[in-house]
Write a structure and sequence with these properties.
Strand content: 5-15%
Radius of gyration: 24 Å
CATH superfamily of the largest domain: Hypothetical protein, domain 2
CATH topology of the largest domain: Endonuclease III, domain 1
CATH architecture of the largest domain: Orthogonal Bundle
Shape: elongated
Structural class: alpha+beta
Length: 357
């Protein structure tokens, strides 16, 4: 027996979260729905809220985003992580601007570069009232518990998605698919949480098979994760006479594609000997000083540890690099580079070092 869609919608009407992309001022804008869904992937609502508003102020519609150079988009995305999302968003905007309209079905949305199954379903349901359930982590958790589905993720994804789509067999869900999808999101985010689920407050608690069996907080099951390897890198902080730092842009393709970075070695499994690392320095013949400590950052598939060497160079920037004020560089850089530059906070400035000597 399916839990009643009407019960969830009634709960949502009373308890829906106030979020920037749910302004209620009119029909949902597909561009704003799309932007919010892309930003929310792998990022918390609390982190996305202010960045969403700032992004919209700079790129208010899909045409503005399509016209913008990648460097501006990368700068605005800096710090949000998972930078392939920004690249896909930019590519998708160009394709949408060329069409001069937003597709309104899951199938047509999937044809846009960078729009995957979940995002297509979310935009179709919320912006265009298509009868589809977008299955994110919250929806997977609610579905697994309601049905007491014990098969572990990620193998169970197709099974959980199929179970979630069955809610659209109910008239109440089909009448309000966008609200129903967002109700599922809110239920998972505020009631059916990973730990300490508030089952007594859930509109579906009577129908939840996992609650009846007392196994709700063990679901969804997850297959054991393989240990992430550790990679190592050495980066080179070069400062000019005005205190600017040397930066370069990473290759367009690959991890952190097109983002600003402090020049450095490739990231590899083995640690770097100093002499070997210096063969990757952006300038030869400088006097390098090692900063204390190391910066660490976790990517999806590996952990990264970085050390930082520092030198001064009052001349011109080498080919492929540019001088940039440190504050401006940090604002435009991804989190991994910000963590690297944070090593400077415990170091004396070159002027202070000179006074000490």
């Amino acid at each position: 027996m399916l839990p009643p869609a009407q019960d969830l919608l009634a709960w949502y009407d009373r308890h829906r979260r106030a979020l920037p992309w749910r302004d209620g001022s009119g029909p949902p804008d597909p561009y704003r729905v799309w932007l919010s869904e892309v930003m929310l992937q792998q990022t918390t609502v609390a982190a996305v809220g202010p960045r969403y508003a700032r992004f919209l102020a700079r790129f208010p519609d899909v045409h503005a985003l399509a016209r913008a150079p990648w460097e501006e988009v990368a700068e605005e995305w800096a710090g949000l992580g998972y930078y392939a999302r920004a690249r896909n968003l930019h590519a998708g905007a160009k394709a949408l601007a060329a069409r001069n309209r937003f597709p309104d079905t899951v199938e047509d949305l999937r044809a846009i570069p960078g729009i995957g199954p979940y995002t297509a379903a979310a935009v179709a349901a919320i912006a265009f009232s298509r009868a589809v359930v977008p299955t994110d982590g919250n929806v997977e958790r609610v579905t697994a518990r309601v049905h007491a589905e014990e098969a572990p993720l990620p193998g169970a994804k197709k099974r959980l998605d199929a179970l979630a789509q069955r809610w659209m067999d109910q008239d109440a869900a089909r009448a309000r698919p966008g609200d129903f999808a967002q109700a599922l999101f809110d239920l998972g985010a505020t009631i059916c949480t990973p730990k300490r689920a508030a089952c007594a407050l859930c509109p579906w608690h009577e129908c939840c098979a996992a609650r009846r069996q007392g196994i709700q907080e063990t679901l969804p099951r997850k297959a054991p994760k393989a240990a992430r390897p550790t990679r190592h890198g050495v980066h080179f902080l070069v400062e000019d006479g005005a205190g600017r730092i040397l930066v370069r842009r990473r290759p367009e393709r690959g991890l952190l594609g097109g983002m600003l970075e402090v020049p450095g070695t490739p990231w590899r499994d083995d640690t770097w000997a100093r002499a070997e690392a210096l063969t990757h320095a952006p300038l030869a013949g400088l006097r390098w000083t090692a900063l204390r400590g190391e910066a660490q950052h976790g990517f999806t598939h590996f952990e990264l540890r970085m050390t930082l060497l520092r030198a001064r160079h009052p001349g011109a920037a080498p080919e492929g690099c540019a001088w940039m004020a440190r504050d401006a560089a940090q604002a435009a850089m991804p989190t991994v580079m910000r963590r690297l530059l944070a090593l400077l906070d415990n170091e004396a400035t070159p002027a202070e070092e000179a006074r000490r000597r």
